[in-house]
Amino acid sequence: MEDRIAIIMAAGVSSRMNTQLPKVLHEVCGRPMLAYVLDACRAAGVGRILVVVGYGREQVIERYADAKDVTFVEQKEQRGTGHAVMCCVGNLADFRGSVLVLCGDAPLIRSETLVTLLDKHRAERAAVTLATTVLENPFGYGRILRDNYGNIQGIVEENDCTADQKRIREVNPSYYCFDSRVLLEALDGITPDNAKNEYYLTDALRLSIARGHKVVAITAVPPEDCMGVNNRRQLSQVSKIMQERIQARLMDNGVTIVDPPNTWIDVRAEIGQDTVIEPFSYIHGHVRVGRNCRIGPFAYLRDNTVLEDDVVLGVFTEVKESVLEEGVRARHHSYLGDARIGRNVNVGAGSITANYDGRDILRTEIGPDSFIGSGAVLIAPLSLGPRSHVRPGSVISQDQAGELGEENSK
Ligand code: UD1
Ligand code: CA
C-alpha cells in the first residue's frame, strides 16, 4: 500500500472571486489552478489524491473524471478547512502513512517544496510538519506562533490576531504533512469557536502539540509561491508570475523571447531551440513549434497547432488546429484554420482559409512547394496538390491536382 496520500481542499464557495465557476477551475496560463496542484503532488511521488469538492462540484468532477489517481470527496456544506478534511475521514480509515494537506487555490506550488516537506517529516519522525514562508506583507494569512526557543505553538488566523500577532511575518501557506493517525485524532478536537465560526484545520496543530506530539515547522516555501487566489486581482498576479516561469523555462531551453512582458505563452506550449518570438505574440493551448521558427510580431497561435522547423509567421497571422510543415512562410495578415500546409508553401499577404460554412468546420490541404498569391480565399473543403499556383486575389473552391502552370483563374 502507498505510504503517502494528499488531500486537496477545493470546496470553497469563493465569494471573493464573484464567479459562477468553481474557483479551482479558473485558469492560470491555460490550465485550471487545480491542475498545477495535482501535478505538484504527482511529481512529489503521491500516488493517491483526495480532492474535496463542494461548490460547483459537478464541473470539477467532470473535468477530472479521467484522472485515475484522484478520488473526489464531497463536502456538502462549507464549514471551514478543518471540516473539509473531516469529510475525508472515511477515505483514510485503513491508510497508515503521511497525509499531505494542500489548498487547490495556490497554483504556484512546486513539487520540490513538497519533497522537502515529506523528507523533513520523515527525518524528524514528526507527527505533523508544516512548511511556512516569511512575507513582507503577511496580511490575510494565518500567522505562525513560536515560543522563545523557536518551537511552533500554533497558527492564528488574521481575523483572530491581536495587534502584536498581526506583526508576525511568518505565515501559513497551507502546506501540511500529517501522520494519518495524528490527523484523525486532531480532527476530533476541532471546534468552530473563532471569528468566522468555522472548523479551522489550523487548530489541528495546537491540538496535536497539546497532546504531546512532535510538531515541526520549516520555513521552506518561497514567498512568491505562497499566494493563494482569493480574488481576481490575485488571479492576475499569480498568472503573471506563472507566465514569467513559463518564459524562463523556454528561454533556458534556447528560445529567444524578444520582449517577455509583451508576450503570452500557454503552459502547454512546446517551442524548439533557436526559435524567436517577436513582441505581442499570443500562443494559446496545445501548440508545438519546431526549431528556427520566427513568430510575430503580433502572431496568434491557437490550440492544436503544429509548426515544424523553419516556419515564419509574421504580423497579424492567426493559425488554428493546423500543421504548417517545414519552411512554410505566412508573413502578413493570414488566417489558417483546420489546414495542413505542405513544405515550403508561401502564403501571400491577406490570404485565408474559409474553414467554416456556417454549419461545419471544414479542412484545407495544400501540397508542398505551392504558391498562394496575396489576398486569396481558399474555401474549404479544399485540396490543392503539390506545386499549386494560386493567383493573387483568387477565390478557390475546386480541388486542384497541383503542378505549376495549371494556374487557377478567378
Ligand atoms: C487558509 C488558512 C490560512 C492560510 C491560507 C493560505 C485556515 C483556517 N486558514 O485561509 O491559515 O494562511 O489558507 O492560503 O485553514 N475550503 C474547502 N472547504 C471549506 C473551506 C475552504 O474546501 O469549507 C478550501 C477552499 O476552496 C480553498 C482552501 O480550502 O481552496 C482554503 O480556503 P480559504 O477560504 O481560501 O482559506 P484562507 O482564508 O485563504
Ligand atoms: Ca485562500
Unreliable runs: none
Mean pLDDT: 96
Summing up helix and strand content along with how strands pair, one would put the structural category as alpha/beta
Strand content: 25-35%
Describe the overall structure.
It is a single chain. With 410 residues, this protein is an alpha/beta fold. It has nine helices and 34 strands. Strand 4 (48-53), helix 2 (57-63) and strand 5 form a beta-alpha-beta unit. Helix 7 crosses helix 8 (203-210). The longest helix is centred in the middle third of the chain and has 21 residues, at 232-252. The structure holds uridine-diphosphate-N-acetylglucosamine and calcium ion. Uridine-diphosphate-N-acetylglucosamine (UD1) binds next to strand 1, helix 3 and strand 10.
Question: What's the structural blueprint in terms of helices and strands?
Answer:
Blueprint lengths: L3 E7 L16 E2 L2 E2 H11 L4 E6 L3 H7 L6 E5 L6 H6 L2 H4 L5 E6 L7 H13 L4 E7 L8 E4 L5 E5 L6 H4 L3 E10 H10 L13 H8 L4 E5 L12 H21 L3 E2 L6 E2 L4 E2 L4 E2 L4 E2 L3 E3 L4 E2 L3 E3 L3 E3 L4 E4 L1 E4 L2 E2 L4 E4 L2 E3 L1 E3 L4 E2 L4 E3 L9 E3 L4 E2 L4 E3 L2 E3 L4 E2 L4 E2 L14
Parallel strand pairs: 1-4, 1-6, 4-5, 7-11, 12-15, 13-16, 14-17, 15-18, 16-19, 17-20, 18-21, 19-22, 20-23, 21-24, 22-25, 23-26, 24-27, 26-29, 27-30, 28-31, 29-32, 30-33, 31-34
Antiparallel strand pairs: 2-3, 6-10, 7-10, 8-9
The structure holds uridine-diphosphate-N-acetylglucosamine and calcium ion.
Quick summary:
This protein is an alpha/beta fold and 410 residues long.
Considering the chains and any ligands shown, give keywords for the structure.
single chain; 410 residues; alpha/beta; 8-stranded parallel beta sheet; 9 helices; binds uridine-diphosphate-N-acetylglucosamine; binds calcium ion
